[in-house]
Fold this sequence. Notes:
By secondary structure, the protein is an all-alpha fold. The protein has one domain. Helix content is 74%, strand content 0%. The longest helix has 40 residues, at 2-41. The protein is elongated and about 80 Å long.
Amino acid sequence: MKNFMMALARFMAFLGGIVLTILIVLTCISIIGRLLNGVFHSALMESVAPGFSQWMIELGVGPLNGDFELVEAGVAFAIFAFLPLCQITAGHASVDILTNSFPAGVNRLLRMITELVFAAVLILIAWKLYEGMLSKMRYNETSFLLQFPIWWAYAASLFGAIIAACVGVYVALVRCYEFFTGRIVIHDGVETGT
């Protein structure tokens, strides 16, 4: 089960990475287009090469329409796509100054409680995303510029949130097992190679 959950978490992180890479390229193209549009509208360019300047503007050189809407939707998905790997590798930020001095049993108890709370919160987030998606579907809300249905972004995020919740529940169950048996199944730290 551990290998399956790790593979699922890695797959989601890979998917999130692809989406972020596409968003970075999209943003760069939009910024370059916005910069070139400003250059072609400048007095210098219109005086030096007015025909070329006008031709490029008519060609549509400029920022991508609705780029921020796509970035907003894509980043929301990417956040949920990275959560499973962060959850299963214990990659969340933690302050261990005090807990390092506790006995191993106390630390296992604290890990168990933390993971149970994490799992509950991830389930709550997935549930609320589901309700939000249904609401956006019911009212046919669309984005301002691109006019794509907003529920699409909710559905993509919900997919990531459900996977994150499943991995969160798995990790919480593992931490419960570790607490009651004293055997460590998932070590703390980034150990994606195991």
